[in-house]
Design brief:
By secondary structure, the chain is α/β, with parallel strands linked by helices. 32% of the residues lie in helices and 13% in strands. The protein is globular, with a radius of gyration of 20 Å. The N and C termini lie far apart (43 Å). 47% of the residues are buried. The mean pLDDT is 95. Bound molecules: iron/sulfur cluster and FE2/S2 (inorganic) cluster.
């Protein structure tokens, strides 16, 4: 059945890949975009115009670290003028009081601040940025002082999943409204470092129990988003809310992607927002059409009653594990490749001496 195409709900604006942190699970591609390839302010202003005309409601300014760009305030202001809800996804380490005020005065509505651990020892080690954790605590206080809604984003893996209880306490202490406990997504840098990041089943079960206890205790005060990681799941998540259904991503060089990791999928052709109208790319771009709806699905998805719930799971994960981007996501128990995912989880979650590689330009 062909599904009708609605306008996208949100746009991830990756305005740069530059970042002072070096997290080994970074969602950016292994081949990072250089500063000289970044889009100009003028082009980003045009993109915001086009996004608003297309019916997009939210823009998430992201990177890399979006605050490395001097024109971020101007972009936030323009988003506000165009009626777009703006969210800043940041490591926080470059934000001071005056920068934050300029974002707020320009209309910023929400901040998503990342933390790499519950304390400086773990946080600074994972982020590869000495002093970063302390700086984040200070920024969270500044965000609270200006009364801006705060989501704390904690990416968890073998090295910090044991800190989950402390991470939840930290979110409370920092007055976050929401805590996203996001398990590493294993494509790009995460895939590259999988052997040194995958948690084992016991670690995962303990963390899940802590989250469930905290959810009850903090009802009405702190929302905790937490999904069992794919490597231990029985059904996949509806990645991106379904391919080409709700989100688009524009990378620093202006390529429009159906998801932030779509460049890891071989054979897809991406178009640049400087070459074609954004709406044309959204409705007719070949990369968007490749896995939109359900017509592309193989068995068992094609006859499954969940096919319009999870949309067959994650295309980047299917490509990374099976080499076939149109395969059923191996996170699904019904996938013929589910066994390989189980074996990877078993084999690669064993404590190893292998050190992860930090992200590098
Ligand atoms: Fe989802 Fe496909 Fe698994 Fe059905 S078979 S649950 S549609 S991934
Ligand atoms: Fe690309 Fe899931 S991360 S579709």
């Amino acid at each position: 059945m062909t599904v009708s195409i609605e306008p996208p709900l949100a746009m991830l604006a990756e305005i740069t890949h530059r970042c002072p942190l070096r997290c080994p699970y970074c969602s950016n591609p292994l081949e990072l975009s250089k500063r000289s390839h970044e889009l100009s302010t003028k082009v980003w202003l045009n993109i915001l115009d086009e996004a608003s005309e297309l019916g997009i409601l939210q823009v998430h300014f992201s990177g890399g670290e979006p605050t490395v760009r001097d024109d971020l305030t101007m972009l936030i202001k323009h988003a506000e003028k165009k009626g777009l809800y703006s969210n800043l996804i940041t490591s926080g380490v470059l934000i001071d009081k005056s920068k934050l005020s300029s974002f707020v005065d320009s209309g910023l509505q929400h901040i998503q601040l990342s933390i790499q651990g519950a304390d400086s020892k773990v946080g600074d080690y994972i982020g590869g940025f000495p002093g970063g954790h302390q700086k984040k605590l200070e920024v969270a206080q500044l965000i609270h002082d200006v009364d801006l809604p705060l989501t704390l984003n904690a990416v968890v893996h073998r090295h910090n999943i044991g800190q989950i209880k402390k991470i939840i306490s930290l979110a409370e202490k920092l007055h976050a409204q929401r805590l996203e406990v996001a398990n590493v997504q294993y494509y790009g840098w995460g895939f590259f470092n999988r052997k040194s990041l995958l948690p084992n089943r016991e670690q995962l079960m303990e963390a899940t129990e802590e989250v469930n206890k905290a959810r009850d205790r903090l009802k009405g005060r702190l929302v905790i988003d937490y999904v069992v990681p794919d490597y231990y799941a029985r059904r996949p998540k509806a990645c991106m809310g379904g391919w080409g259904r709700r989100f688009l991503n524009i990378n620093p060089a202006g390529y429009v992607l159906p998801c932030h990791a779509a460049e890891t999928i071989p054979g897809l052709r991406f178009e640049r927002v400087t070459d074609k109208p954004l709406s044309e790319i959204w409705y007719h771009g070949s990369a968007f059409e490749a896995f939109r709806g359900t017509d592309w699905m193989p068995a068992p998805c094609s006859t499954c009653d969940r096919k319009e719930i999870d949309w067959g799971g994650c295309r980047c994960q299917a490509a990374a594990i099976t080499g076939r981007p149109d395969a059923t996501d191996p996170a699904c128990e019904l996938s013929p490749d589910h066994g390989s995912m189980n074996s990877i989880a078993q084999n690669e979650s064993k404590p190893s001496q292998e050190q992860f590689q930090y992200r590098r330009m």
